[in-house]
Design brief:
The chain contains 12 helices and 15 strands. The protein is of the alpha/beta class. It has 2 domains: 156 residues, no CATH class; 154 residues, Rossmann fold (3-Layer(aba) Sandwich). A 7-stranded parallel beta sheet has the order 7-5-4-3-1-2-15, with helices on both faces. The chain has a 6-stranded parallel beta sheet with strand order 10-9-8-11-12-14, with helices on both faces. Helix 3 packs across helix 6. It is globular.
Length: 376
């Protein structure tokens, strides 16, 4: 039995540089109702896209850009992603094991060290006592931000030929391939859809993970009348139309790698089509994760392989596609667009209840949720 403190727990929201990840963790922190401090960390340049070996530590972080992680240590850390969770485990070690960690996503190693794992359905984690299995990730589009962008982009978007189809483009992720050939296939499919539906405007926008080869292929073969926004790392993102398109587009096409963009569109109740990416070439891509997938239905074996570091829990992005199709929230690109069958289910509050049970707090010690200084 955990002794109930006479104050709200000290909570850190430990996040990284991925906006979609951060949105999920922040939604959970705000719903929890306890004050929390934001600790945002950023990887060193070589680990922005590369994957550091998974171990507790701060060696992979840029100390000049990252918030300080120092005592007093928190009672609870909410975190997401490989790089921030490595830092969370480091904090847990420094706290003498007192700090509890809630991880959104799949653990790369040491699943038993997390007080709670909150995993959407694309992560094939067999049942365990500290797992909450979600259907979809927790991110949702911010209605206020979408409305504000809608006003800012109104003059530029409302005059375009309808239907206005927003094409949201992500990037390559294992084991899938997203190269120039895949980009050209996407354009061919978009042109077939536009011809079938009587015209309209295609508005394509790339993202941080989109490879230069893909941008070049899109630019070279851009259909007549289509618009292309190239994502930029410059401040302001080169006047990124993403939120404006969420406000004004009639329908959406999202590449199958980007769970965050698919779920944000679905959360707004907008017609959505998914362009699934092809499996990467080569034996490594085709066999990647086979051991973990075979063990996915045998919980004991999967947990053993994970604990020994032989195989991680598998990820199946197709599970998100299938779920969205089954619930009438999306169609494969090429099928007629349709209005969503209903809203997304609210999976947030059951997770909040599980977290609150980790650190029981008297009502008098739980003031309204607030974001405190990040200490940097």
């Amino acid at each position: 039995m955990v002794d109930a403190p006479d104050r709200a727990p000290r909570v850190w929201l430990l996040i990284g540089d991925k906006l979609g990840d951060n949105a999920q963790a922040k939604a959970l922190a705000e719903a929890l109702g306890w004050p929390f401090e934001v600790r945002q960390v950023f990887p060193k340049p070589e680990w922005v896209l590369g994957k550091p070996a998974f171990e507790p530590g701060l060696h992979h972080l840029d100390p000049e850009r990252s918030a300080r992680l120092e005592p007093p240590w928190p009672d609870l850390i909410l975190t997401i992603g490989r790089r921030p969770s490595m830092a969370a485990l480091w904090v847990q070690d420094r706290s003498g094991g007192r700090t509890k960690i809630v991880l959104v996503g799949r653990p790369k190693r040491w699943a038993e060290r997390f007080a709670l794992i909150v995993a959407p359905s694309q992560f094939r984690i067999p049942p365990r006592d500290n797992l909450v299995q979600l259907a979809l990730p927790l991110m949702r589009a911010d209605p206020a931000a979408v409305a504000a962008a809608g006003e800012a982009w109104r003059a530029r978007l409302t005059g375009l030929a309808r239907p206005l189809t927003a094409v949201l483009i992500g990037g390559e992720t294992k084991p899938f391939r997203f190269d120039g050939a895949a980009a050209r296939e996407l354009l061919r499919e978009l042109e077939r859809v536009r011809a079938r539906d009587g015209g309209g405007t295609l508005y394509l926008t790339t993202s941080r993970r989109t490879r230069p080869e893909v941008v070049e292929a899109l630019t070279a073969r851009l259909p007549a009348g289509a618009l292309l926004h190239r994502w930029s790392a410059e401040p302001g993102g080169g006047d990124n139309p993403y939120l404006g398109l969420l406000a004004h587009a009639d329908r959406f096409v999202v590449t199958g790698d980007s769970v965050s963009m698919m779920v944000e569109v679905a959360s707004l109740g907008r017609p959505l089509a998914i362009f699934p990416l092809p499996i990467g070439r080569g034996l490594a891509n085709r066999t990647r994760g086979v051991v973990a997938r075979l063990a996915g239905g045998a919980g004991g074996l999967a947990h053993l392989l994970h604990r020994l570091g032989i195989a991680g829990y598998a990820r199946d992005l197709g599970a998100i596609h299938r779920l969205l199709y089954q619930r009438g929230l999306a169609v494969p690109l090429g099928e007629p667009f349709r209005a969503p069958a209903g809203p997304l289910a609210d999976e947030l509050m059951p997770v909040v209840q599980r977290i609150r049970a980790l650190l029981p707090v008297p009502d008098r010690a739980a003031p309204p949720s607030a974001v405190l200084s990040d200490g940097s």
